[in-house]
Automatic annotation (TrEMBL):
The lineage of its organism: Bacteria, Pseudomonadati, Pseudomonadota, Alphaproteobacteria, Hyphomicrobiales. Keywords: Transferase. It comes from the Bacteria. Gene3D superfamilies: 1.20.1050.10, Glutaredoxin. InterPro entries: Glutathione-S-Trfase_C-like, Glutathione-S-Trfase_C_sf, Glutathione_S-Trfase, Glutathione_S-Trfase_N, GST_C, Thioredoxin-like_sf. CDD domains: GST_C_family (cd00299), GST_N_family (cd00570). GO terms for molecular function: transferase activity. This is Glutathione S-transferase. Residues 1-83 form the GST N-terminal domain.
Length: 217
């Protein structure tokens, strides 16, 4: 098997890449990385000195591919299946990439900020940064509520890159900053995503690790 995904089953950005792999039943070897283990961390750093996962290694093509969006674009090009993640049409393609950036930068990162703050020791927390992240999430939820006026997937018609990007931060986002009654379409979109077989599989595999999700103290 030429593809190896270096990942962790609880990691939100890894979910994004896993959804794409499962969507098209692409065979790969999963390598679960414990970043707390110095040997495993060093092996990941060797592949991608930034030290973040997911990282995809493709031995057949001699490529190491970091960054969830780039992994999905790589799979779409070199391991194509029935689900196309980025449309061929140039106009739809840039709109899809924009929505992917929206979910990563304005939903995923603020969600990570709030979750990450729970891990900080008392005295080193960042309440100002967390308040900013909450405000950003609420702005983003309102934007998604508007985008989802007609239901469906992130880009309207077909499931794609932006939906892979949307599930992880909406799943964890609803835990750290609940959608609330004003964002019924965001809730409904999250439920549609959770019912998608590729997503359901990712969530099922993550279940045994859910006790490790940092709690609010
Ligand atoms: N922009 C990256 C973000 C990856 C990322 O933040 N991964 C997190 C897990 S969800 C990570 O590796 N965290 C470990 C660390 O920062 O030490 C992507 O899209 O793949």
């Amino acid at each position: 098997m030429s593809l190896t995904l270096h990942f962790h089953p609880l990691s939100s950005f890894c979910w994004k890449a896993l959804i794409a792999l499962y969507e098209n039943d692409i065979p790969f070897t999963p390598n679960s990385v414990n970043l707390g283990d110095p040997v495993e961390r060093a092996a990941l750093l060797k592949l991608w000195p930034v030290g973040k996962f997911p990282v995809l290694r493709d031995d057949a093509r001699g490529e190491t591919v970091p960054e969830s969006s780039i992994i999905i674009e790589y799979l779409d090009r070199h391991y194509r299946g029935p689900t196309r993640f980025i449309p061929d049409d140039v106009h739809s393609a840039w709109q899809t990439r924009l929505r992917d950036r929206f979910y990563d930068l304005y939903v995923h990162l603020p969600m990570q900020k709030i979750m990450g703050d729970r891990l900080r020791p008392d005295g080193n927390k960042d309440p100002h940064g967390v308040a900013e992240a909450r405000a950003q999430l609420r702005t983003s939820y309102a934007m998604i509520e508007h985008q989802m006026a007609r239901g469906g997937w992130a880009m309207g018609g077909e499931f794609g890159l932006a939906d892979c990007a949307a599930l992880p931060p909406l799943f964890y986002g609803n835990m750290v900053e609940p959608f609330g009654a004003a964002h019924g379409r965001v809730s409904a979109y999250l439920e549609r995503l959770k019912a998608r077989p590729s997503v359901a599989r990712v969530l099922k595999e993550a279940e045994p690790y859910f006790h490790m999700v940092p709690k609010e103290r």
